[in-house]
Amino acid sequence: MYKEQIDMTRVPRHIAIIMDGNGRWAKAQGKERTYGHQEGVERVRDIMATAVNLGVEYLTLYTFSTENWNRPAAEVTALMTLLFKNLEETIFMKNNASFRVIGDVTRLPQEVQNACRQIEERTQKNTGTCMVLALSYSSKWEITHAVQQIAQKVKEGTLAVDAIKEETITQHLATHFMPDPELMIRTGGEERLSNYLLWQCAYSEFYFTPTYWPDFREEEFCKAIVDYQSRQRRFGKTGEQVTENK
Prior knowledge:
The protein is of the alpha/beta class. Strands 3-4-2-1-5-6 form a six-stranded parallel sheet, sandwiched between helices. α5 links the parallel β3 and β4. α1 crosses α2. The chain is globular, with a radius of gyration of 19 Å.
């Protein structure tokens, strides 16, 4: 069992996941794609509970990208309906977890926006894992929005051009309230970031698995963490430097 192999003193503070493979999982079983999305919701509940038990501070899930708006209208509608029906405050209260959303939420149906805002407000004092849903999100949108905010401050004279640092950009991103992910997991067999947390993943460890998201259970999640803990994170230094500084 991988859970028993985890060093609880080195659990990543922030784990980001690209939940891929719902549609292909459903098609492999002769079902409609929406069936895979429904089963995927159950995995979200399972993985959130595991993250809470392991002490993961932030769990960010790529739920719906800006590019996903280009999918067939029927599938988009089904996804939005599924999202609205499963945004349950009780799940977060049960796990002492808080809830946040990042992305261009203005494009979401009003009822989904209202539900997200309500759960954010009601769970903000919870002290367990903060589960962040990336909804109508893409890194290109996020970085563009950050640049626009910074440019406006320069225009207004409240920020000097030579005062713009890496930290300035970080502070204007949608993820400004949490640390960068130490571990990025992608399920479903694809090995790319798909416009997700590009700035934040500059030094994240990547873990790709062929397992479709509906089959990604606690054991698979723990396996990814064990793999992460087996790596040496150097951040541009040599292995000898890292070892010496321990």
